[in-house]
Write a structure and sequence with these properties.
The structure is a single chain. With 401 residues, the chain is of the alpha/beta class. The protein has helices at residues 2-9, 45-48, 57-67, 80-91, 104-123, 142-147, 172-178, 202-215, 266-269, 285-299, 303-324, 347-356, 379-399, and strands spanning 24-28, 31-34, 39-42, 97-101, 129-133, 164-167, 183-188, 191-192, 198-199, 218-222, 246-249, 260-264, 331-335, 338-342, 359-360, 362-364, 368-371. The chain has two domains: 2-55 and 302-399, Aspartate Aminotransferase, domain 1 (Alpha-Beta Complex); 57-299, Aspartate Aminotransferase, domain 2, CATH 3.40.640. Helix content is 38%, strand content 17%. The strands form four sheets. It has a seven-stranded mixed beta sheet, sandwiched between helices. Helix 3 (57-67) runs antiparallel to helix 10 (285-299) and helix 11 runs parallel beside helix 13 (379-399). It is globular, with a radius of gyration of 21 Å. The two termini are 39 Å apart.
């Protein structure tokens, strides 16, 4: 079996249970099929990557066209797909410049390096510390796991990269207390993903902007998971009327292909000079072609409005389920199509029962069910997913009454 060969040849870094993880072989829209032909509604979506579902035709067409032209070229040369995507992102955001990478972790690495370099150039002294939030998640590289405010990701990798301090999310005073003469930036997710789907308050993000202005710090938003339409706006920070100095994107940006991006103001971009940072595969022509098609779809008139309408419907129905199962669904958190149901220790088994009935959802921290449906999920598919979830919850309550 393929699963046995995987265990034989691939390093075990993912927590899969024997016989419980399907082998997915085909996807179309919001649905996937396993090796036995069983159909699932996919509300994991590659963890917010497949924001337009599987095999979205405009992305397939864009990738096919580009692969017939040129698949890869060094960044020593100009690239038309890269420039086209950069123009699209800059013209539809407050950014002035873009750096392309391959992943969210790499985009955040670029942001960390740029914050340090720019601050040293501007102030001429050692200012290198970045304040991040507890329960945050910023990546798996050594610097980004250090930036991540969760001790469980740090264990075994010490000594960690120096230069990071942690404060409580949505607690402005906690962040203020961590600022000192070495601080160069504050970095947060407007909506924390891996930390359990925690949404920033307007007062918090607006307060961080003021703090950064008062202390000449850079404000960095990690939009790896919550960006690119996931919350109903192109960028999550648009809900807050706060403009960051740097923000990072990945996941949904490539429509299924690996790509990351760090965007920043024109002034901050001047912190990097040729040779300061680079990426062999960053801005790959095929990935950029896919991303251009994905971003173009998000920018289509009415698309994000439909996301807001359908995600409001989903939230309302989840709140209805909470009313039916108040002892089981302790809290519902999130924004747009990035929603978390705090269940408790039962969440792992509930996720498995949903999978058995044809609904793929994710469980984070062993206690929170995370729903990340494609942004173009049809309403009848939302209804079908809700029906599966309700049936599982009903059976769970009946079995454990």
């Amino acid at each position: 079996m393929l699963q046995e060969e995987e265990r034989k040849y691939i390093i075990n870094t993912y927590n899969r249970q024997k016989g419980a993880t399907p082998l997915l072989v085909r996807g179309q829209g919001s649905r996937v099929w396993d090796e036995n032909g069983k159909e699932y509604l996919d509300f994991v979506g590659g963890i917010a990557v497949n924001a337009l579902g599987h095999c979205y035709p405009p992305i397939l067409e864009a990738v096919s066209r580009q692969m017939e032209k040129i698949i890869h070229t060094s960044n020593l040369y100009y690239s038309e797909p890269q420039v086209e995507l950069a123009r699209m992102l800059v013209e539809n955001s407050p950014a002035g410049k873009v750096f392309f990478a391959n992943s969210g972790a790499e985009a955040n690495e670029a942001a960390i390096k740029l914050a340090r370099k720019y601050t040293k150039q501007r102030f001429g002294r050692e200012r290198y510390e970045i304040v991040t939030a507890l329960d945050s998640f910023h990546g798996r590289t050594l610097a980004t796991i250090t930036a991540t405010g969760q001790e469980k990701f740090h264990r075994g990798f010490e000594p960690l990269v120096p230069g990071f301090r942690y404060a409580r999310f949505n607690d402005l005073n906690s962040f203020r207390a961590q600022i000192n003469s070495y601080t160069c930036a504050i970095m947060v997710e407007p909506v924390q993903g891996e930390g359990g789907i925690h949404v920033a308050t307007p007062e918090f993000l607006q307060g961080l902007r003021r703090l950064c202005d008062e202390h000449n710090l850079l404000l960095i938003f990690d939009e790896i998971q919550c960006g690119m339409g996931r919350t109903g706006k192109l960028f999550a920070f648009e809900h807050y009327h706060v403009v960051p100095d740097i923000f990072t994107l990945a996941k949904a940006l490539g429509g299924g292909l690996p790509i990351g991006a760090m965007l920043c103001t024109e002034e901050v971009a001047g912190g990097f000079s040729p040779g300061d940072h680079a990426s062999t595969f960053g801005g790959n022509p095929v990935a950029c072609a896919a991303a251009t098609a994905a971003v173009g779809t998000l920018l289509n008139e009415g698309f994000l409005e439909l996301v807001r309408q359908n995600s409001a419907f989903l939230l309302g129905e989840l709140e209805r389920l909470q009313g039916i199962f108040p002892g089981l669904i302790k809290e519902i958190r999130g924004k747009g199509f990035m929603l978390g149901l705090e269940i408790g220790s039962e969440a792992v088994e509930i996720r498995m029962h949903c999978q058995d009935r044809g609904l793929l959802i994710n469980c984070i921290g062993g206690e929170v069910l995370r729903l990340l449906p494609p942004l173009n999920t049809k309403k009848d598919e939302l209804v079908a997913a809700l029906g599966i979830l309700e049936g599982v919850l009903q059976d769970w309550v009946g079995k454990n009454a």
